[in-house]
Write a structure and sequence with these properties.
six-stranded mixed beta sheet, Nuclear Transport Factor 2, Chain: A, 3 helices
């Protein structure tokens, strides 16, 4: 007789346990849905932040390129050098790399030739990764000496810019080559 009462007590107890377990499963499922929704919103915000970061970096890289062209066309070696990181270098064709300290002198020596210089650039590609951006493309530098036909020198370039501690961007590495070398001046 005791056994049969135990069975009758066991059935409601098991039913109650299964009901509680079902409620807990439903509650857990709801928590999982809420957690998934928060994770999705966080991922979306992170993607937006990454996209905004990339846009800012690309915009900064475009500004650097525009400032470089403006300084070159103004024949301003110091203006070009100011666009470079303190560890920045250029790698001109057929020469050893020139550190930031020598960049202004390198360009000023070109500009001292007496020619009027005009630089046009066509950026073909740019990408950003973290605190670095890379741009490359082609350029044409036209040199016009008084009384002579202008000479166009075209080539390819690659430039790496680096985000500075203050949030600005500067050129870290810049290299270029000549497709048709400049004539001796």
């Amino acid at each position: 007789m005791i056994r049969s009462r135990s069975r009758w007590l066991l059935v409601p107890t098991l039913a109650f346990a299964f009901a509680c377990a079902e409620d807990e499963r439903a509650e857990l499922a709801e928590e999982v849905k809420e957690t998934a929704a928060v994770a999705a919103k966080t991922a979306e915000k992170m993607t937006q932040a990454k996209d905004e970061w990339a846009k800012e970096a690309m915009s900064a890289t475009e500004r650097i390129q525009a400032d470089y062209i403006a300084a070159y066309n103004a024949e301003n070696g110091a203006g070009i050098a100011a666009l470079f990181d303190s560890d920045g270098t250029i790698a001109p064709p057929g020469m050893a790399s020139i550190t930031q300290a020598g960049i202004a002198a390198y360009y000023d020596a070109q500009f001292a030739s007496g020619a009027d210089f005009t630089l046009t650039v066509e950026r073909e590609s740019m990408f950003v990764s973290g605190d670095m951006s890379v741009a490359w493309g082609s350029y044409v530098a036209t040199m016009a000496m008084e009384g002579a036909e202008p000479v166009a020198v075209d080539g390819r370039y690659g430039s790496i810019s680096k985000r500075q501690a203050d949030g600005t961007w500067k050129i870290y590495r810049h290299m270029f080559n000549y497709i048709n070398p400049p004539p001796e001046m």
